[in-house]
Amino acid sequence: MAQQNKKPNGTFTPPNGLELLRLNEAIKKRKEFNRASEMEKFLRGQQWDWFITITSRHFMTLASARRTASIFTKLIKLSSSMNFVQGSDNHLIDVAKGNDGLLMWVAEPHKHTASGYHLHCLLRLPFRFRDLTNKEQFRLLLGKSRLAVGGEHWTNQNGIEGLWHRVKLEPYKGHRASEYCAKYLTKSLCDYDFLPIL
To answer: How many domains does the chain have?
Structure first.
């Protein structure tokens, strides 16, 4: 906080420009902290199944991050519109139950914003996916997220195949993921949205 300067005769001297700048920055950080704290409480109050990070080998802008999240949501919807999903032991699992899925995504800039963005997502699967094991959910989400960001595989000039994109899927275990996502919701360089999966 800016120090109040008093002249020898006891009159008040207003803070200089640098002190005002520091004071304004402190107020701004406090407001950002309060917004992030409120959003974190809201996110913690939701029931999430997965914390997902999607990084593309291509340059990802905010618009392409939004498009990727939208496509990811649509692919999950499409996979469930068939009413049955094939389980790992080739049994068919009925997925035509409930419509309570939600994807919250936030686009975070890489350390050097010139290299684009990557996505962090909190996902609550629709009830119709809850009969799938974690392993089955993992495989389904891995394939859909890779497709959403632009495809699964590439081949170099030597014929060696690799993955274009990196996807990290973790079962939602605690509030650290909510805290992490909430931190970026208040940043000016970021974008976010909540997409229902019906």
So the answer is: 1
